[in-house]
Specification:
Layout: E1 3-6, H1 9-25, H2 32-41, H3 47-59, E2 64-68, H4 74-77, H5 94-107, E3 109-113, E4 123-125, E5 144-147, E6 159-166, E7 172-177, H6 188-191, E8 196-197, H7 216-234, E9 238-239, E10 242-245, E11 248-251, H8 265-280, E12 283-286, E13 292-296, E14 300-304, E15 317-324, E16 341-342
Parallel strand pairs: 1-2, 3-16
Antiparallel strand pairs: 2-13, 3-15, 4-15, 5-14, 6-13, 6-15, 7-12, 7-14, 8-9, 10-11
Helix pairs in contact: 1-5, 2-5
Organism: Asanoa ishikariensis
Protein name: Arginine beta-hydroxylase, Fe(II)/alpha-ketoglutarate-dependent
InterPro entries: Alpha-KG_dependent_hydroxylase (IPR053447), Arginine_beta-hydroxylase (IPR023966), Clavaminate_syn-like (IPR014503), TauD-like_sf (IPR042098), TauD/TfdA-like (IPR003819)
């Protein structure tokens, strides 16, 4: 069951002045001051929305939280960008981006990866010509395999969040909630053992980034990150697939990027049993403009079905945020306490 709240016309009427004022005060969603202020600004969101988000955060009633009903004028948006590079400047969706940032900041701290979309905090999810068959969120003609977001990394987020701006073909996001699995028939003890090899996913590879950000310090730190990820590819680290409470466990797996060489028969059987259950219990979610969905990255896996992109400005266009409830947990990976980018 999806934890769902629909904004009313009164909610939208109350939100628009605040969003408009903030859009005038800042030039881009990547403005460091806006991101720092977001948790405080989020307190101006409707009280019933904040209570709804807190119930999701603490009570874990579902692995999927959907806030729908935000007003989106698709004429005002204009064409879907052909690429994520530079799309944050003079964004026609700036007010919607601010709302998305504030809602996410009510759940935790947003953060970015130096190795993804040049260290941006808010990502664009859109089809890129030439990526049709890549295992990336910018693909289209093949399914984006279901996974835990950034499963390979110890600093992965608690939530991966998506805001829909356009989805004319109602392309399905697919999600499986751990609460829907029958743990009693799975070898949970085996899945808690650090016997599973999780490789870095393709979105963190240097060929999917700009050659240079223009900042030599940032470029040096980013190259260090790429080198670390390459070392994990060369010498993969074994980790458990499950963690937390053995009666109601959390998950971290990305089968497409898992190297199964050397796994024991028991580990292989336990992993296959889990994957079979996930496949059988996957549900489709069709995001519509104005929908903001928050996937609990500890309690769900997600992916996306294939579609045929047109590259004419009308294609599916989402925004994405990573959210953590423990920003300090990544302090060794960030150059300063208030820096939101993991290197």
């Amino acid at each position: 069951m999806i934890h769902h709240l629909t904004l009313t016309s009164e909610d939208n009427a109350a939100l628009q002045p605040m969003l408009t004022d903030l859009a005038k005060a800042y030039a881009t969603i990547e403005d460091g001051e806006l991101i720092r202020r977001a948790p405080v600004l989020a307190r101006q969101l409707p009280t019933h929305l904040l209570e709804f988000l807190e119930e999701f955060r603490l009570g874990e009633p579902s692995a999927l939280c959907l806030v729908s009903g935000l007003e989106v004028d698709e004429q005002e948006l204009g064409p879907t960008p052909p690429h994520w590079k530079d799309s944050q400047f003079e964004s026609p969706a700036f007010r919607q981006e601010i709302f998305f940032l504030l809602v996410a900041s009510a759940l935790g701290d947003v953060f970015g990866w130096a190795t993804q979309q040049d260290g941006r905090i808010m990502h664009d999810v859109l089809p890129i010509q030439g990526h049709e068959h890549y295992e990336l969120g910018s693909n289209s003609l093949q399914h984006l395999s279901w996974h835990t977001e950034d499963a390979f990394h110890p600093c992965r987020g608690d939530y991966v969040a998506l805001m829909c701006l356009k989805n004319p073909d109602l392309v399905e996001t697919v999600v499986c909630d751990a609460g829907d699995l029958d743990w009693s028939v799975l070898d949970v003890d085996a899945l808690f053992e650090p016997e599973f090899t999780q490789m870095p996913d393709n979105s963190h590879r240097p060929e999917n980034a700009s050659e240079s950000t223009g900042d030599p310090v940032v470029d040096r730190l980013r190259q260090r990150s790429f080198a670390l990820i390459q070392s994990w590819n060369d010498d993969p680290v074994k980790r458990p697939v499950l963690f937390g409470d053995r009666q109601d466990p959390y998950m971290a797996l990305d089968p497409y990027h898992m190297k199964m060489d050397g796994w024991s028969d028991r580990s292989l059987a336990a992993f296959q049993g889990l994957c079979d259950q996930i496949e059988a219990r996957m549900q489709d979610v069709r995001l519509r403009p104005g929908d903001c969905v928050f996937v609990d990255n500890f309690r769900a896996v997600h992916g996306r079905k294939s579609f045929r992109a047109r590259y004419d400005g009308s294609d599916r266009w989402l925004k994405r945020l990573n959210v953590t409830r423990n920003l300090r947990g990544s302090r060794a990976w960030r150059p300063a306490a208030d820096n939101r980018v993991i290197y």
